[in-house]
Amino acid sequence: MVATSLRCARMIFAPNIVVKVLFVLFGVAFACPIQAQIGRSRAPSPSKPVQTPTPPSPPTLNLMPLPKVISASRNIKLWDTSGQPTLQIDPNTGDINALALGTKDGQQTLISGGADGVVRLWNLASGAPGDTLAVNHGPITALAISPDNMILAVGAADGTISLWAWKQGRLLAAVPAHSDAVTGLIYASDNHTLISASADRQIRVWLLLDNGRRIVLRSSILAHDAPITGIALLSGGTQVASVSEDGYLMIWDLATGAQIRRIFVCERGVTALAVSPDGKTLATGDFNGHIRLWNAITGMPLTFQGNLPQPPRTLLWSADGTMLVCGAADNTLSFWNVNTDKQVACIAAHDSPVRALVLAP
Question: Where is the region Disordered (predicted)?
Answer without folding.
Answer: 40-62
